[in-house]
Design a protein that fits this description.
Number of domains: 2
CATH class of the largest domain: Alpha Beta
Strand content: 5-15%
Number of helices: 9
CATH superfamily of the largest domain: NAD(P)-binding Rossmann-like Domain
Order of helices and strands: EHEHEHEHEHHEHHHE
Number of strands: 7
Strand order of the largest sheet: 3-2-1-4-5-6-7
Largest sheet: 7 strands, parallel
Radius of gyration: 19 Å
Length: about 270
């Protein structure tokens, strides 16, 4: 008989990069409401501080740290600070990411129009922006004696989509990295270390709003195609991610590692016919 709450997150120290976006903010607020202590990591102090203040105003515990996830040196400085203030962490969430117009192939363009500098920046942010935090903050998980890494994948990782060549490639690399790290950590540091990924379906965010909706709120052709391929017939809401997030951060998933969990309204299951 299990006497403890497998989903209990009270006092769990969670280091969360990329928490100030639409989805990240919803996730961070929810985790704080469950009693977790949030260590917010972001590049823009104003955004980090605003989220920190919102969490604390609602009775939660949070602190803010500032670094560029693609800059290992700046991450090392934050790691030293966090270690001195908190000692260790139990969960690392890597949610920093995004896209750039130059790394997108528009309908009137071809692959030859791809902007190499933009592609490199998108790959760096979405891939190295996860690799570097894992490398830098892993000692804080090891110091804890066990821990969870949660990466953020995408529908574009397993089923490459038109236009978003850089973003899709980077997210495919995240899926592979998640599996590789799961094996690496469990085999070398023990079964108390887990690595998984959360793959959101299509949610309206600042990153994709203009791709999916017109200025009047109606769907673009791409938005219509996506809804037509989603059995639940809608875009996701930020709170749709919270159940899977809670599960993957808690002991309820203690025998789950190397897995990418899709929260997509059935998009990845539907063949189109």
């Amino acid at each position: 008989m299990i006497s403890r709450d497998l989903f209990d997150l009270k006092g769990t120290k969670i280091l969360f990069s990329g928490a100030t976006g639409v989805l990240g903010t919803s996730m961070a607020l929810y985790l704080a409401q469950q009693g977790a202590e949030l260590l917010l990591l972001g590049r823009t102090p104003e955004k980090v501080n605003a989220l920190r203040d919102q969490i604390t105003a609602e009775g939660g515990k949070a602190s803010g740290y500032y670094a560029d996830v693609t800059d290992e040196e700046s991450l090392e400085k934050v790691k030293t600070l966090i270690e001195s203030q908190h000692g260790s962490i139990a969960v690392l969430i890597n949610a920093a990411g995004g896209n750039m117009p130059g790394a997108v192939i528009r309908p009137e363009q071809t692959f030859l129009d791809l902007d190499n500098d933009a592609l490199r920046q998108v790959m760096d942010l979405n891939y190295l922006g996860t690799v570097f935090p894992v490398k830098v903050f892993l000692p804080l998980l090891l110091k804890n004696g066990g821990g969870t890494i949660l990466n953020i994948s995408s529908m574009a990782a397993s089923r490459p989509m038109t236009r978003v060549v850089g973003y899709a490639s980077a997210k495919a690399a995240i899926d592979n990295l998640t599996k590789w790290l799961a094996v690496e950590l469990a085999s070398k540091h023990g079964p108390s270390f887990r690595v998984n990924a959360l793959a959101p379906g299509f949610f309206l965010t600042e990153q994709n709003r203009t791709l999916l909706t017109q200025e009047d709120g109606s769907l673009t052709q791409r938005g219509t195609q996506i809804i037509g391929h989603t059995p639940m017939n809608r875009f996701g809401n930020p709170d749709d991610l919270l159940g899977a997030l809670h599960w993957l951060c808690s002991d309820a998933s203690k025998f789950v590692t190397g897995t990418t969990v899709a929260v997509d309204g059935g998009f990845s299951a539907y063949s189109g016919v």
